[in-house]
Structures are given as structure tokens and as C-alpha cells.
Amino acid sequence: MACKLWFLTGCTAVGKTALSLELAHLLDAEILSCDSVQVYRGADIGSAKIKPEAMANIPHHGIDLCAPDETFNIDRYAKYAQSVVDQVQKKNKNLLVVGGTGFYLKSFFTHAIDTIIVPESVRMETQLFYENFGLAALQRAIENYGSVDLNASDWHNPRRLVNILAKQRVTGWDQATLKRKFYQNIGPFYTFFRKVILLERHPTSLNDRIERRVVEMFRMGLIEEVRNLKNMCPPLANAIGYREVKAYLDDGEKMTQKELKIAITEATRRLVKKQRTWFRRQIPIDFCINLDAYSFNESFDFIATFCRNYGP
Question: N or C: which terminal CB in the chain sees fewer CB atoms within 10 Å?
Fold first, then answer.
């Protein structure tokens, strides 16, 4: 039996976890987390990580993969996802990918792992070039190769530009060509059955859920969790919730906890706004449902009907 890949996604706090457990049973599927923070051991409260006792005997993958001081990136996730699909397929089961980290999710639909091998010496030389001469020099060096196809955010992102220039030095290609060739590569799951279910809510409802979620995280001990996470790697230290609490602790707890909760809530709302746009533009959505329009059971029934039309 070929493993079918089902995806349950949506904005932060929309309500993916509860539905995922019911859906995994229906689809005879194991669950793969698609969350860039849940991969870190000890980052439990701030990532709303599911507790083992709540997993309803469904195997969960993609959780607690590395130490908090160990950087985990999209390349590692894509390779890990391929290994999980192989494992699940050998069991004649399906896989339900659950989460809202967009670039992790997109790795199932495009080739997330770059096939261009850049020697470490070239990467270090390029990084040193940026450190010595600055962003403008980095931009000019990239333009010297020819056409550039980057948005404003990437064009002013030194880390992104160092990576591009290093590849240019290896291949001799302009940036637009690098981008085109990357997207011409078919992803590793190109031949797999793939269906994406997007969960939505009304903005007011989602804002309320975010507020309640932040309050619950503080009740569960978010501040102590961050205090106990020593030497967090940059991706974890910059994650919403962890970033704000770390700054609060580093500043001697001068801010009130009420102000800290507001800061995390507002940061989460900004993320949700970006997520809404991103999902619609970047991922092929097959079924969308607004959870505020129906009860939990009704929502699940609609989703189940959609899934049954394609067979479990």
C-alpha cells in the first residue's frame, strides 16, 4: 500500500491538535509534527507540545528531536520527514502532517534541500567578505553575476545573501537562475497522494483563543521553562514566547508579567496575520473549514466526509 500524505494546518491556536487525533484514527495514520519549535527538547509549554498521555496511542513523530542549544533547520526537517514516511509506509499506514510552520510544510510540495554543494571554505570566505565590507558590497557582488529575483525582505537579509553569493561563486550563475533551477527540482514527495486541509476561525475568535493560550502558558510555568533552557540556539531563542520571556529575564524582570503577556499575545497575532496570507499563497489547499461555523463534531464530520471521498 502506498502511504497517503494528509496535511492538517492552520494558524497558531486555531485548534489543530484535538482534530488531528480524531482524524489520525479515521485515516489509519501516524502523526508528524510540522512545528519548528516542538523539535526542541524542553520547549514544551511555549510550543503547546502535546503531552504523551494525550496522544491517544497514536505514534507521533517530529517532537523532541534535538537539544535546545542545537540548531535544527529546514534541511534536517526535510530529511527527517522522508525517513518518517519510509517508516510509516513499511507499516502499511498513512501519515498525517500537523502544524503551522510554513516552510516546513512547503518542503512536502517543493524541493526544500538544495542540491548545490558549497565547500565550507567558500562559505567562510563569503561570510568574511560580508563582515569586512558590509551589506551594500554583498548586494553589488550578487548583482555582478547578472539578474536578481528577490523580494525586499530577502534583499536586505545578510544571511540569505551570503548563502546566495556562496552558491554563485560555486556555479557562476546569477541569482535568478539559481532560483529557477531550485524550483525546477521536483520535491521528494512528488508522486505521493497529498491532500491539505486548512482550518480557519473568525479573527475575533482567534484573538480570544490566543489570549487564553498565553494565560494558560503562564499558568503552566512558561517563565520557569525558559529560565531552565540554558544556551538556547538562535531559532529557539527567537521563537515567539521564548524571545519575549528571555528578554524579560535578561532585563532583570523589570517589565510586569501583565506587560509580558501582552507582548507575547501581540507577537502571536502578528504571526497569525502573516500565516493567513502565507497559507493561501504558498500551499495547495484542498479543503478549508471555518471551525467557528460548526460544533467540533460537525467540523470533524465535514472533514471526515472530504477524506472518505479519497479513501483512508
Answer: N
pLDDT in tens, 112-164: 666 788 898 999 999 999 999 999 999 999 999 999 999 887 899 998 899 99
d(CA 283, CA 286): 9
Q: Which three cell numbers stand for residue 256?
A: 510586569
Closest to 48 (Cα-Cα) out of 76, 23, 15:
15
Give, to the nearest 10 degrees, the angle between helix 257-282 and helix 242-250.
150
Classify residue 148 by its DSSP letter. -
Q: Which H helix or E strand runs over 37?
A: none
Is 5-112+187-308 CATH 3.40.50.300?
Answer: yes
Q: Enumerate the domain spans of the chain.
A: 5-112+187-308, 120-184
For residue 199, the Cα-to-chain-centroid distance in whole angstroms is: 16
Query: Does the CA dihedral 229-234-236-238 come out positive or negative?
Result: positive
Q: Mean pLDDT lowest for which of 31-45, 65-79, 293-307?
A: 65-79
pLDDT in tens, 85-99: 999 999 999 999 999
